[in-house]
Every structure is written in structure tokens, then in C-alpha cells.
Amino acid sequence: MSKSILVTGGTKGIGRAIIERFAKEGFDIFTCARSEKDLETLKAHLEDDYPEIQVLALSADLSKKEEVVKFSDAVKAVGLPDVLVNNTGIFLPGSIHNEPEGNFELLMHTNLFSAYYLTRAFVNEMIARRSGHIFSMGSIAGLTAYPNGGTYAVTKWAMLGMTKCLREELKPHQIKVTSILPGATFTASWEGVDLPVERFIPAEDVAESVWGAYNLSPQTVLEEIIIRPQLGDL
């Protein structure tokens, strides 16, 4: 029976790289993003390159609880993922004391609440099955405060805290929980920045870390993976 992975925000950057890595290993894919066009392109690519796998790619804005529920219900109608990667996130620069009104709510709902609701949608079935691996895509911004990080950093600190709580809760149920904490990764978020590509982490390296963590023996879990550019943070 084929294994499967659910990756939110799967059409670009780290999410796309994780999907590619697991598809290459024969995993069925569940994913979502806001752009239907990008999803259609991704689905066609995966079906061409990996004809043996099944792909469910649905449009969803996970900043809205009702769309998280709709997406999770659509996935459940097909099956229960073996791996869940809460990857959806956006970055808006600003400082807490003067960032635009609404930044806090938008980033919290997109970066944190989406992961909370989606995890709750699947975790009880994972507990009943006594297997599963949940990854949360955090950031070094969830470890180190920095100027102009604003609410984005707050959401990543909160994501790390939520993931630590899940780790403790799910230990007895044989479900693994891992925080991925990358530094500057070469994705669309850094478009237009006048820096050489060599200054960034390739998204494929983050995906390889997720794959490696997933493949450890049942008695071992990588709780946190911190990934930085070789030359340090930007």
C-alpha cells in the first residue's frame, strides 16, 4: 500500500521541494495552495514524472478556518496521510509597534492557526493508527528576534511552542513530531534581493532534511532541525 504525504503551500519553494523529494520515493501527494493555475501545473508535472503516484491538489486559502476544514475533509475522503507538513506561511515585514493594521491577524491565521486546525483534523486518526509524522515549518525567526520581523517572528515562535507541545502529547502514541527551522532559503520570498544565490540555503536541502528525519528508526525522533546558510544568517 502506497504511503502518502500532505504538504500545505506545495506549489513553490520549500513545499514544492518536499513534494518532489517524497514523490520520487513513490509517496502519494496531497497538497494545496491559493493559485489554481500553479496547482494545475504542479499536478501535471507530478503525474508526468511520477505516473505511479496519486496526486490531490486543491485550491485553498488556509488563513480561513472554513477552507482548512474543507481541504482536510477532501483529503480524508481519499485517505489518511502518513506524513503531515504544515508549511503554509507568508512573510510581511514590519515592526510590532507600527506595522500596518491587520498584519497580526493575517499572519497569525495563515502561519499558525492553519497548522493548528489542520493538525487537529488528522491527529486523532493518527493516534488511532499509532503512526504518523508531523513536521512544522518554522524559521530561525522563531529562535532569534530581529528588527523588521514583526508579527512574522511572533508566529514562528508560537509555531515552535505548539510543536513542542505536540511532541510531548504524542510521544505515547508513536507519532513523531519535528520542527524544521531554516534560515534564509532561496525561495520567492527573497525575489529582488541583491544577493548571490550561494548566500542562501537551497530549498532542496531543507527537503532532504525532512526526508532524512522521516527515515530514522521507529525508536528515534529528530525533535528540531536548525538549518542555516554556511556563511550565517542574513
TrEMBL record:
UniProt family annotation: Belongs to the short-chain dehydrogenases/reductases (SDR) family.
SUPFAM superfamilies tied to this protein: NAD(P)-binding Rossmann-fold domains (SSF51735)
Protein name: Short-chain dehydrogenase
Keyword set includes Oxidoreductase: yes
Residues in coiled coil: none
Pfam families: adh_short
Gene3D superfamilies xrefs: NAD(P)-binding Rossmann-like Domain
Key words of the record: Oxidoreductase
GO molecular function, one term: oxidoreductase activity
Domain of life of the source: Bacteria
Family matches, as InterPro entries: NAD(P)-bd_dom_sf, Sc_DH/Rdtase_CS, SDR_fam
